[in-house]
Amino acid sequence: MEKIKREDYLSILRNFKDKQIIKVITGIRRSGKSTLLEIFQDYLKETGVKEEQIVSINFENADYEGLQDRRKLYEYLKSKLIKNKKTYIFLDEIQNVYEFEKTVDSLFINKDVDLYITGSNAYLLSSELATLLTGRYIEIKMLPLSFKEYMSAFEDKTDISMKFRKYLRYSSFPQAIELYNANPNNIELFLDGIYNTILFKDVMQRKGITDKNVLERTTKYLYDNIGNRTSVKTISDNIEGLSKNNSYNTVSNYVEALIASYMVYKANRYDIKGKELLKTQEKYYAVDIGLRYHILGQNAGRDMGHIIENIVYLELLRRGYKVYIGKLDDMEIDFVARNSENTIYYQVALTVREEKTLERELQSLRKINDNYPKFILTMDEDLDADFEGIKKLNLLDWLMTDF
């Protein structure tokens, strides 16, 4: 199967090629970071860059274990530099190198080096690197496939609803399409591998967590409650096997580690009237609905309203927005999406065919006293509609649009 070209991410790499800035690609394991680098390296060669100008190391590969010492890594890379020519260095899963930021800093000051690094843990940028390289790097936050990217893998673009169901059930990780086509049973083994690797390597080892049972219960609770307002206290009150003396701190530590591994995303609440972030009753979303099915079993499909809400949340992140849960007096707006230029409000519902449901979704949007765009996204297949400036759109159409 041909690699799915992640054009939105690739365009960023192309735009920053040869710029004196480090390109940092972050995201959950198997989201496509390594493949993105491979595709970009192919692009470099197509534009005249010679093979010897490209140095690529994946620190998950045992062949490079000896280079996990930062000094040895630096000496190795220094020996690969070509005088008076640009050398393109790709360091994949660099969090496996202790004190890697010192090597990165040393490479950065060489104007003949164009540097690209990836990592599967947010601690990558909460480390010394962020302080050391303030203003000298860009972060590209990579997610598994959008539905539009997923659809690009199929020649047959018909029966989009059925393909959307498969996208949800059998995962948005890029490799899942190929595995499903070979044998649908492969998906469970694939997701199990991702789940256990993240829990063991990215969470337990990195954070020194020893109680895998409680960690798994915390993960399951968060995945079972996507789209529900919650708090660390609510989670700790619902997790069995916790010592009451330190349950809050334990769960807070576990949730923070799951967020750092990109398995879980947290959306804070935003007071629209007061224009301030609220510190309680946030919501959590899963990085992949297929992974949620794997963790929860068949019951994972019972709350389709929250599932599509999860899909919209991730899509808004892909489109470059900071995403919040809106509060307006005693009402809730599903999403307030903000960037440097715009604010957009979204309500998400499985269906608004019933007049009462439609009115409920419209009511909260109508109360917002500004002129920013307002949308209702649903799975209804009837024609789009406009209610005094509030647009109702079909979710799948919205997911397939350019932005």
Overview of the molecule:
This protein has 17 helices and 13 strands. With 403 residues, it is of the alpha/beta class. It has an 8-stranded mixed β-sheet, sandwiched between helices. Strands 2-3-4-1-5 form a 5-stranded parallel β-sheet, sandwiched between helices. The protein is globular. It starts with 6 loop residues before the first helix and ends with a helix. The relative contact order is 0.09. The model has no long low-confidence stretch (mean pLDDT 93).
Topology (SSEs and partners):
Layout: H1 7-16, E1 22-26, H2 33-46, E2 54-58, H3 70-80, E3 87-92, H4 100-108, E4 113-119, H5 123-126, H6 128-132, E5 137-141, H7 147-151, H8 160-169, H9 174-182, H10 186-207, H11 212-224, H12 232-237, H13 247-260, E6 264-271, E7 276-286, H14 289-296, H15 304-318, E8 322-328, E9 331-338, E10 343-349, H16 355-366, E11 374-378, E12 385-387, E13 390-394, H17 395-400
Parallel strand pairs: 1-4, 1-5, 2-3, 3-4, 6-8, 10-11, 11-13
Antiparallel strand pairs: 6-7, 8-9, 9-10, 12-13
Summarize the structure.
This protein is an alpha/beta fold and 403 residues long. The chain is built from 17 helices and 13 strands. The model has no long low-confidence stretch (mean pLDDT 93).
Mean pLDDT, nearest integer?
93
* Count of DSSP strands: 13
Name the beta content range.
Answer: 15-25%
SSE string: HEHEHEHEHHEHHHHHHHEEHHEEEHEEEH
- Which segments are poorly predicted (pLDDT under 50) over 5 or more consecutive residues? none
Overall geometry comes to globular
Distance from N terminus to C terminus (CA atoms, Å) equals 27 Å
Q: Percentage of helical residues?
A: 40-55%
What Rg, in angstroms, do the CA atoms define? 22 Å
Number of helices: 17
The major sheet is characterized as: 8 strands, mixed
For the biggest β-sheet, the strand order reads 7-6-8-9-10-11-13-12
Class computed from helices, strands and strand pairing: alpha/beta
